[in-house]
Task: structure prediction
Amino acid sequence: MTPPMVGIIGAGQLARMTAQAAISLAVDTKVLAVLPTDPACVAATAVEIGDPNDPAALQRFVAGCDVVTFDHERVDPTLLARIETEGVRVRPSAAVLHFSDKAHQRVELAAHGFPVPPFDVVTTASEVVAFAAAHDWPVVAKTAVGGYDGRGVFVLENRDQAVATIGGLAGRRVVVEPMLDISAEIAVLVARRPSGDSAVYPMVETIQHDGICLETIAPATIDPDLRTQARNIAESIAETIGSVGILAVEFFITPDGVIVNELAPRPHNSGHWTIEGAITSQFENHVRGILDWPLGDTSLAAPAVAMANILGGAPSARPDDLPGALSVSGAHVHLYAKPTRPGRKLGHITATGPDQTVALHRARTALAAFTGTPMSKGTLHDH
Amino acid sequence: MTPPMVGIIGAGQLARMTAQAAISLAVDTKVLAVLPTDPACVAATAVEIGDPNDPAALQRFVAGCDVVTFDHERVDPTLLARIETEGVRVRPSAAVLHFSDKAHQRVELAAHGFPVPPFDVVTTASEVVAFAAAHDWPVVAKTAVGGYDGRGVFVLENRDQAVATIGGLAGRRVVVEPMLDISAEIAVLVARRPSGDSAVYPMVETIQHDGICLETIAPATIDPDLRTQARNIAESIAETIGSVGILAVEFFITPDGVIVNELAPRPHNSGHWTIEGAITSQFENHVRGILDWPLGDTSLAAPAVAMANILGGAPSARPDDLPGALSVSGAHVHLYAKPTRPGRKLGHITATGPDQTVALHRARTALAAFTGTPMSKGTLHDH
Result:
């Protein structure tokens, strides 16, 4: 069999781990990178340097690819749609990638009857004020595009903050929603093939701080009815929008039940635990899905699996202690080889265990050894 | 931390899987390959083309490596020893690599009192005949160097065969031993650091055919006393010879107890199952060991783990069916991207299960789907 060539637009850690997984299947990967030092370049079969929003660079890149996918959403969907009409297999499709626009996503999910928070899509402070009049301050405003890891998300306490913040966004579309009463955040990953077959990963609880995912723990220990609800909603969304490869669906658990927070049409931080913690990793299943190959078993490979992100420390932080982290039995360290910057995701650590508490303790112990900072004090909602 | 650079002499499947594992730790790898299409080239950070037995090529290759290791034994130990004296960190050492010489290995193990078969190191047919006079025909003759996967191993039934075979070896050293009464073959992998710390993997049973390892199954279901014996011997050999990284010790189970068959001072086919089947793979532990980093947990990650090698079929064989193999739930396919040749190791398939029988059945089912040939009929010694 001639190995298929998968083109990945973007060369960050998601592309890095996807390319690493593709090696086992002898699937060739080519990444479209900004710099030759981007995280995925060492793992990919081939590297092209270019701007995905430069039509000529994109055209050059997709030539010779059996299928094109991405590790980030900073690609113009209309450009992708044009490439698609020229016969390039883009998976997930440009239409699905469009769902990374938070406004489009929210409007579409609501239109299909999926549970979303009350919301409005606005561009002016006065619209925010009108929304707050109906729903009370504070409100949460999220830029429709360009936000990640807490960037582009604002908690607005009053009219003055709304004016200052929305004024600073120069007319960009913003999704505004009430400050919800959230007891937990969970994520469900769905792997799907073009044929429609899908496989759902066990639900994880995500522990966030300032909008950045710090830790995940699988399986999430939430009410079985809510779990079933969330699982069904995630699968139904994947089918409704026609996702291919991995789709991550993030939920809020509120007094009103599960509410869809956000979608990401690609491998996702909330699924990094699957490398060691599931029978088949999200990265391998993304590759299988976009190549329309049978999906792998998504079951847990251990009773409980915890993942802790390695975030860049202050410039004064002591050097990382990788051997220190490796001395924690059962800790799996994944480094992305990215230049450090405070708060930047530089890697993650996964640990399995007989239960959630033990797994989380192992992951945190290894993280503390790595960074030399005290162990995280965040707790699971019900531990 | 500046990523360490690991140089790997050779670019076959062992280097490929080592480089793939190194990505997680952000350890850079450079392989010394024969061809740019060698299996490891896609996974390594850097590739150099050259002959490891060309002193100039080897000198160029080791420059800039923090540590040098290998994926095959076809390197001149004296050349490596010279490089070592120049201050290059070769791990395992040239002295350990010398143990891949079957005659040296046998003589040294016997001298240290480890259980080995009766043997002689010979170069002539008349010495073989003399050995057979003491031990009876048939005898087994193995070339001291250059043999692998059954090549260089000969069962000699009588004087005529001895004359024909040994005559054809043009004076090469040969280890001769009696035809043993073998009830099972097992392998024990030991990971070791220069500091002396070591970690032992659960014992596997290997199922061989014509000297080629077809399948492995972990854990081996042999008598606990023999298991303890073999484990202790393997650890003791690792310490005695000062191995660093992975050392594979292959044993015969005979009516006289466990007997050491052969050593391999590197990651080994009998440890491929550890990628999914152990908490830490042999490849990651090889990297950790040669970098003198803490070794990872070698425990089983599932109750039972089976591995089946994918061997090249006849030229008339139908094309491989990767999607077919992936449709077997829980099957992990690893392809080495090597040109096919009858009997050549082209990849392997690992499956876990609640017990050895189920795991082996899964691996065989996936292999049969991949190759389109009927399932292997080989059985475990006691299943």
Observations:
- The longest strand of chain A covers residues 245-254.
- Residues 204 and 220 of chain A are 5 Å apart (CA to CA).
- The radius of gyration of chain A is 20 Å.
